[in-house]
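Bump. Still looking for Guanine deaminase structure tokens.
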Amino acid sequence: GTIVHSLSLSELEILAPGVLGVSADGRIAFVERLEAGKPDDLAAALTRHNASSAQIRRLPAHTLLLPGLIDTHVHAPQYVFTGTGYTLPLLSWLAKYTFPQEKKFASRAHAQEMYPRAVRRSLRCGTTTAAWYGTLHVDATDVLARTCVKTGQRAFVGKVCMDRNGGEGYVEESAAKSLIDTNKWLDDFEALKCGDRVRPIVTPRFAVSCTGELLSGLGDLARERGGLHIQTHLAENRAECAFVKELFPASESYAGVYRDHGLLTPRTVLAHCVHLSDADRTMLHETGAGVSHCPVSNFGLDSGVCDVRALLEAGCKVGLGSDVAGGWSMSIVEAMRSAIVASRVVGHVKHAAATDAHAAKNAHVALSLAETFYLATLGGAKLLDIDSTTGNFAPGKEFDALVVNLDAGGSEDSGARPVDIFDHDDAAEMFEKFVFISDDRNISEVYVAGRRVVGPSGERVDV
Ligand code: GUN
Ligand code: FE
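Sorry for the wait, here they are.
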């Protein structure tokens, strides 16, 4: 079939047609371009790789095989109120919507009802790897991890930590208590013995809601436990940035607060990073901490427009995040579209501000389709330090993949067809249609590590 994946930031490989082999252990054995219209080519490839032709599957012309999408920043407890509150800026939105909703996860039963819905929705949208935030609660966050294990998603799961500026009844009583709970939760996680596919991630919510004592305690803990992943929010909204400056006057900048407390590591994921200086970007590059770009959320909460090109030019790792419920969609395809729009907006603003024609011409290069798909897949994998396992179809990696059917959906009469395909011949144009106009109805199958986790018609598959 037609196979599309990223080789690097700028290189999108389109194999039309191509053949991909998956071995019994769920790893990619080979991926090759075939000569179009030469049936012998397939037979030769199979022989060369010692593959059985009995287990061949041919994908129809209107189908694409893509690597699984990676959501590097998403809040599971917020799924329930997605789509509300977008007239409020970040800090008011947290107080009015987020904290009261997250507080409800004190009940394990509530988590058991809500988390499977969030994780299944994420998988249904083609997200094969997600970096989830839970809540303050050890018990509910354990439910979230078990949900990822059960549904088959590859995931990082974080118990949120906050010891100040929370909501009524939604804040931990001290840094010490937050650290005790985090250690307990990590011990429980180890007892789950779920292997590498579902892993814990240390999660100070953001500098506004954590004291310096808690931030450095979590930095130490991540290091002492063998270099655990870390996730938090950075420089999302102007009022938030001003508040952090008041709370941490001794640090050079907001990014500097995290560095000063030992939280910037090559396994740190920083969501948003809208309001950064050149020095901040250099700091991220030098520490190896990377950015989860959440453009849908940045529009939803009116936070600003992130200059992803500047991050890439500074050498920072970048992936995409849905940031539900700051973002209104679990779909990383939606995040790709918004990333393209955001990048073009940055370009137009820079163009308008340029002082002469030459400067205007060189103001900005917007993200290309290839670059944006990289952010959604291989870039996310590099950000999470799992690119030796997933992110593209390189042989040896695990088979995390989507079968995209661009001719899916209802009858012509019902008008329910999500994408009209007029021409199956041009694979690059099919891929462009996938990015700009497909929706979850076009994702007919989802695989993680070679196992199907969303079935042909989207039915649930518990593994
Ligand atoms: N900053 C601190 N907490 C949050 C959150 O839950 N969502 C978003 N978008 N930003 C935050
Ligand atoms: Fe967030």
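The chain has two domains: 2-67+391-454, 69-383.

Edit: fixed formatting.
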